[in-house]
Amino acid sequence: MGKAWISGTEVPEHEAVAEAARLIAASRLPLVTGLAVDVAGVKAALALARQAGGVIDHAGSDILYRNLDVLRSAGMFVAAPAEMRRRADRFLVVGAEVAAQSPDFLTFVLGGNGTSGEPGESRGRKVVWLGGPAGAVLPTVGIDAETIACAGPDLAQGVAMIRAALGGRRFATGPIDTAAAASVPAFLAEARFACVVWSAASLDALGAEMLSGLVADLNLTTRASSLALGGAGQAFGAAQIATAVSGFPLRSRFAGGVAVHDPFAYDGRRLIASGECDLVLHVDALAGGSAPVDAGTLPVIAIAGANAAFAGTPAVAFEVGLAGRDHAGALYDDMAATFVPVDGPAADGPGGSAAAILLAITAALGAPAERAA
């Protein structure tokens, strides 16, 4: 049994489970969020949201949806990291967050030799980093790399200049040097296989769409694809699990057990700000997971690791172990582009797992709540 609290007072775990179930059952519209947790935890959170007739959304969905919106509305050339490691010989890396979000990602992708075994495909690998931090060194031993300075808020405009230059269209002065904007299309046009890498954390939705369009334009004359990271805290993995279970990538409400999806109406942060939801259940069971959502004056049920901090005292709190440290599980891996097992001790660590607590609360809720959509 792990530690648990009701309004800051430590209580037996079963009492906290009963109180959490009572609060959820009395709620008009509970929001299940955070979701920095392993596969079992996401599945258990979905089961709880379905049982409670609530909304489920990842705390990092605002970043994740910058890529998802483009993928769903216009399509996107997307590659596997291992394929780009093997084939690509020209890389355009956009924004500083790629290295910050997944430190080993660039090392893996750029660590190949750019040779697919096809005749003539062993030409030297080169990298341009648009918006890389000043003085930073890419993890590219033996690779000719060039950094083009561009502030984060100006990345979309910088990409627009590059895309205009690629299409032979005129463009005005902007955040990057005009000569540099013209040199990037020439650099990419030399590729046998070009790859554009970015994190949605560096861009707004328009910037992600501009980069996706750049990759599409490149495919008119050469082969090109993209590696687009979707944010930290297992956001992309949670969206995939939600799609497999409910048919939709989060931002859904369960009404009578059926998922109803609306990226605007069921945006968790918007629901909190507008007061449309009246209870927040936040799950954060990863080392370096999502920051706690500021729920304002709304009551919070917190399922988190020992060092999690909240703006106020949660109505109910559970201390749980972290996946891959205190217990085994499965997590989405950017380099593998799929889910991979992570090791833990033979038995669950301090507080057990988030999935176990979520399933206990779901069981305590009893029959599914029938709420109107």
Q: Can you tell me the CATH class of the largest domain?
A: Alpha Beta
Task: Provide the gyration radius in Å.
Answer: 23 Å
N→C terminal distance: 37 Å
Q: In percent, how much strand structure appears in the residues?
A: 15-25%
Question: Could you report the average pLDDT, rounded to the nearest whole number?
Answer: 87
Low-confidence stretches: 117-122, 369-373
Tally of separate domains: 2
Write the layout of secondary structure elements.
Layout lengths: L3 E3 L2 E3 L1 H14 L3 E7 L2 H14 L2 E2 L4 H13 L7 H7 L2 E5 L2 H5 L1 H8 L15 E5 L13 E5 L6 H12 L11 H12 L3 E7 L5 H14 L4 E7 L5 H12 L5 E4 L2 E4 L6 H7 L4 E6 L15 E5 L11 E4 L9 E5 L4 E5 L11 H12 L8
Parallel strand pairs: 3-4, 3-12, 5-6, 5-8, 6-7, 8-9, 12-13, 13-14
Antiparallel strand pairs: 1-2, 1-14, 4-10, 10-11, 15-16
Helix pairs in contact: 1-12, 2-10, 2-12, 3-9, 4-6, 7-8, 7-9
Give short descriptive properties of this protein.
alpha/beta, Rossmann fold, Dimethylsulfoxide Reductase, domain 2, 2 domains, nine-stranded mixed β-sheet, five-stranded parallel β-sheet, disordered C terminus
Structure description:
By secondary structure, the chain is an alpha/beta fold. It folds into 2 domains: 4-60 and 233-365, Rossmann fold, CATH 3.40.50.740; 65-229, Dimethylsulfoxide Reductase, domain 2, CATH 3.40.228. The protein contains 12 helices and 16 strands. A 9-stranded mixed sheet has the order 2-1-14-13-12-3-4-10-11, with helices on both faces. Strands 7-6-5-8-9 form a 5-stranded parallel sheet, with helices on both faces. The longest helix is centred in the N-terminal third of the chain and has 14 residues, at 13-26.
